[in-house]
Amino acid sequence: MPKSKRNKQVTLSKTKKKGRDHKEAIVNAIKQAAESYNSIYVFSYENMRNLKFKEFREKLKSSSRFFLGSNKVMQVSLGRSAADEIRPGLHKVSKLLRGDAGLFCTNLQKEEVERLFNEYEEYDFARTGSSATEKVELKEGPLEQFSHEMEPYLRKQGMPVRLNKGVVELISDFVVCEEGKPLSPEASRILRLLGIKLATFRLRLIYRWSDGDFEFYIEGPDDSDVESA
């Protein structure tokens, strides 16, 4: 029987795409911040955790403002060349917005910013596909941290286990992950069950601009291009 043309599936989860108005709002917000705050920093991030970042941002919202998102939009906001920059030297900041990077606009003193960023570090469970920072190996024998109900689930994750008098037992040594290799979905689940956090959410300062005063925190292959721009 042919399908009825009236029988069409409608996706209720569809959301409206962020268009030109959204981009213009971000551009205007960054321009306003660049004119309002004394200093602008470029920072990079590793193992981003949105909830943790939100907490850090809330802590500093009275004196500062963070911007994350499209590097291209942030570059346009600051100006890509000396001809279209909104304040002297900001096109140099623009050139450093590459990869996992963001902007930090603030009235805090330089020493306070450096202290906050250097001290900030949050540990969390590593996600599937991320590189393991160390080798995790379980030795043959009882796994008393797991109840007997967990045995089928652990076996499903590839662990060589059995029940021995009601106790979950590894029948041979088992490598959960190898240092430097991507985590499989099974490995990330096992690490979470074991309570082992291999991901560290960090923010690293790259560059500081403050009324014509510039400073690099991390040297890169294109630093000379930025300085001569």
From TrEMBL:
<comment type="function">
    <text>Component of the ribosome assembly machinery. Nuclear paralog of the ribosomal protein P0, it binds pre-60S subunits at an early stage of assembly in the nucleolus, and is replaced by P0 in cytoplasmic pre-60S subunits and mature 80S ribosomes.</text>
</comment>
<dbReference type="InterPro" id="IPR033867">
    <property type="entry name" value="Mrt4"/>
</dbReference>
<comment type="similarity">
    <text>Belongs to the universal ribosomal protein uL10 family.</text>
</comment>
<dbReference type="InterPro" id="IPR043141">
    <property type="entry name" value="Ribosomal_uL10-like_sf"/>
</dbReference>
<dbReference type="GO" id="GO:0005730">
    <property type="term" value="C:nucleolus"/>
</dbReference>
<keyword id="KW-0690">Ribosome biogenesis</keyword>
<comment type="subunit">
    <text>Associates with the pre-60S ribosomal particle.</text>
</comment>
<dbReference type="InterPro" id="IPR051742">
    <property type="entry name" value="Ribosome_Assembly_uL10"/>
</dbReference>
<keyword id="KW-0539">Nucleus</keyword>
<keyword id="KW-0963">Cytoplasm</keyword>
<dbReference type="GO" id="GO:0000956">
    <property type="term" value="P:nuclear-transcribed mRNA catabolic process"/>
</dbReference>
<dbReference type="GO" id="GO:0005737">
    <property type="term" value="C:cytoplasm"/>
</dbReference>
<dbReference type="InterPro" id="IPR040637">
    <property type="entry name" value="Ribosomal_uL10-like_insert"/>
</dbReference>
<dbReference type="InterPro" id="IPR043164">
    <property type="entry name" value="Ribosomal_uL10-like_insert_sf"/>
</dbReference>
<dbReference type="InterPro" id="IPR001790">
    <property type="entry name" value="Ribosomal_uL10"/>
</dbReference>
<comment type="function">
    <text>Ribosomal protein P0 is the functional equivalent of E.coli protein L10.</text>
</comment>
<dbReference type="GO" id="GO:0030687">
    <property type="term" value="C:preribosome, large subunit precursor"/>
</dbReference>
<feature type="domain" description="Large ribosomal subunit protein uL10-like insertion">
    <location>
        <begin position="126"/>
        <end position="196"/>
    </location>
</feature>
<protein>
    <recommendedName>
        <fullName>Ribosome assembly factor mrt4</fullName>
    </recommendedName>
</protein>
<dbReference type="GO" id="GO:0000027">
    <property type="term" value="P:ribosomal large subunit assembly"/>
</dbReference>
<dbReference type="GO" id="GO:0006364">
    <property type="term" value="P:rRNA processing"/>
</dbReference>
<dbReference type="Pfam" id="PF00466">
    <property type="entry name" value="Ribosomal_L10"/>
</dbReference>
<dbReference type="Pfam" id="PF17777">
    <property type="entry name" value="RL10P_insert"/>
</dbReference>
<dbReference type="GO" id="GO:0003723">
    <property type="term" value="F:RNA binding"/>
</dbReference>
